[in-house]
Amino acid sequence: MLDYDKEAERYDDSRGGEPRAAAAAAAVLSLVPRQTRRLLDVACGTGIVTRRMAAAREGLRVTGADLAPAMAHRAAARLPGAVVLADSRRLPFRSEEFDAVTSVWLLHLAGGARNVRAIVGECARVLRPGGVYVTTVDKGASHNVGSDIDAVLAARPPGVAQDAAHLVDGYAREHGLSPVGRALFTGHGQGRSPRRTIADLRRGWFVTLPPGEPLAEEFAARLAALPDQDRPRPDPVFTLTAFAKS
C-alpha cells in the first residue's frame, strides 16, 4: 500500500494532472442532479478534482474530506475552509447532511470487504433521501488495456478487487441505495510505460508484489525486457456508478 502522505507532493503530476482531473470532474457531475446544493467528496486527495466540481456549478457547495494530512493540506489550499481531515469509515457529519456524496478512486484502497462496506454505509448515512452517491468501481481492471505490460502483469499473484462493481452494488443495496446511472472517463496521462511500471512496482503500487521481494524483482526484470521502455501504452478508462438513496 502506498503512503499517501509521501505521495502528496508528486500525486497530481504522476497521475495525469489537470487533464485527468477535468475528465473525472465532468464525468462525476454528469451523474449529479442539477438541483444538488451540498456535495461531499470523500477521499478528496489533493482536491484537484474537488476544486473543479466546485467551480463547475454556481450554487454548489462542495466539502472535501481525506484521511492523509498531506493530501488534505493540499486540498485545503485549493478549497480554503472546505476540507476536513476524516476517516471515510467514520465521517464527522450529521446523517442526511448532503445532497450528493462522491468517492473517486477510494474503494479499491479500502483494505477489505469490511472497510468497503463501512465506507459505503457512511456515504449512505450522510446522504439525504433522494440524494445520489457516485463512486468509481473496477479500478484495477480499468488499467488492463491489453498491452504488452498487461501481458507480463497477468502472471502476478491474483488479488481481490474490493471495488468490483457487483460487490459495491451489493453493499449499496444493504444501505438503501439503488443504481441509477453509469459514466466512463479517460485517465489522461495514466498510460503505463515499462520503466514507469517498474518504478511503481518498486514503491509498492502492486499489493500482491511487495517491494524488495524476489518475485517483485522477477517481474521488474520481465518488464525491463520489453521494447520502448519510455513509451506510454494507452490510457485507462475508468467507470463511475451512481446510486440513489430511497
How is this structure best described in words?
This protein has 246 residues and is an alpha/beta fold. It has a single domain (4-143, 159-189, 235-245), classed as Vaccinia Virus protein VP39 (Rossmann fold). It is built from ten helices and seven strands. It has helices at residues 4-14, 17-29, 48-56, 69-78, 113-125, 139-142, 148-153, 165-174, 194-202, 214-224; strands at residues 38-42, 61-66, 83-85, 98-103, 127-137, 177-186, 237-245. It has a seven-stranded mixed β-sheet, with helices on both faces. Helix 2 crosses helix 3 and helix 5 packs across helix 8. The longest helix has 13 residues, at 17-29. It is globular and about 55 Å long. The mean pLDDT is 94.
Structure at a glance:
The chain is α/β, with parallel strands linked by helices. It is built from ten helices and seven strands.
